[in-house]
Design a protein that fits this description.
Collagenase (Catalytic Domain); 42% helix; disordered N terminus
């Protein structure tokens, strides 16, 4: 699913891919709006993002392959423009300069976390989407100051959205 917002002059390009097993349970339009709101909040309204809603097995494998952690997780972000110290710099084609990266969310983990804290799966997916996109934009929570900043941004973005029906 590829939706562009008609309300913005230069809309974000958001590619939403949902595992067929979860298609009926994922609020697709809502998640598109969440990505747009996060990009707008960070001044990156023209950013391009791929958002994938998948199963625990995929997140488990990606978590193992890329983070060395042998368990599933709720959300992973893979920034296209990441600059790690000492790493080779990948040169993007000019038409891909707005591509920020991929956010991959485990639907079953989101479902379990929503039940554990007592809110809807749509709310949990929204939170994980904001969190993942903020990582693409360079925000992190590796120390207390970064965490406080990132959590505050998440709260501001989520509060700016209309309630889930």
């Amino acid at each position: 699913m590829n939706l562009n917002s008609p309300n913005q002059q230069q809309p974000a390009n958001i590619d939403l891919q949902i595992d067929p097993a979860y298609q009926a349970s994922v609020p697709a339009e809502r998640l598109i709006r969440v990505v747009e709101a996060t990009l707008h909040h960070a001044g990156a309204s023209q950013g391009e993002v791929t958002l994938v809603i998948a199963h625990d097995e995929l997140l488990h494998q990606l978590n193992l392959d890329y983070r060395g952690i042998d368990s599933p997780t709720d959300v992973l972000s893979f920034a296209a423009q990441e600059e790690a110290e000492g790493a080779n710099v990948f040169i993007s084609a000019p038409e891909a300069l707005n591509y920020l990266g991929d956010v991959i969310i485990s639907f079953p983990t989101a479902e379990r976390q929503a039940a554990a804290v007592g809110h809807s799966v749509a709310d949990e997916l929204s939170l994980l989407t904001v969190h993942g996109v903020l990582h693409l934009l360079g925000y992190d929570h590796a120390n207390a100051d970064e965490e406080a900043d990132m959590w505050a941004r998440q709260s501001q973005i989520l509060a700016s959205l209309p309630p889930v029906p």
